[in-house]
Write a structure and sequence with these properties.
This protein has about 130 residues and is α/β, with parallel strands linked by helices. Helix content is about 40%, strand content about 15%. It has five helices and five strands; from the N terminus they run βαβαβαβαβα. A five-stranded parallel sheet has the order 2-1-3-4-5, with helices on both faces.
Length: about 130
């Protein structure tokens, strides 16, 4: 894992404004932030950057794209166990309720947070999972 202040975070979300806002907040807290606006672009950046943590949306090209991306990340040998924070509005748009599964088979994410997320809460979550 990188030194404190050098942690790499990958944000995968199709909401350009939200990505930029979260990027500004995280960079102000000494994180290096990479972004992607689709699942496909996110996986390509994941493999290139090998981040220390991923922030991931559910609904992108498809309503469930983030679920597929999290499965793909978890299937990457040796690097697939990095923390994944899923930030989503899916609970507001459907009656379904999702949360991380303890064995990460059903929903392979570390944490699931409803949008919108307060900037200080986001930083606290990132710090928590990177043990800053």
């Amino acid at each position: 894992m990188a030194e404190i202040g050098n942690h790499k975070i990958l944000i995968i979300d199709d909401d350009v404004d939200l990505v930029e806002a979260n990027k500004i907040v995280l960079e102000a807290n000494s994180y290096t932030v990479f972004t992607a606006h689709s699942g496909q672009e996110g996986m390509a950046k994941f493999k290139k950057v090998i981040p220390d943590l991923v922030i991931l949306d559910v609904s992108m090209e498809r309503r469930d794209e983030g679920f597929y991306v999290s499965q793909k990340i978890r299937s990457c040998p040796e690097i697939g166990q990095i923390p994944i924070i899923m930030i989503t509005a899916i609970h507001q748009s459907t009656k379904f309720r999702f949360s991380p599964d303890t064995d990460e088979n059903y929903l392979p994410v570390t944490e699931m947070v409803d949008k919108p997320v307060n900037p200080s809460t986001l930083v606290q979550l990132v710090d928590k999972w990177l043990k800053k």
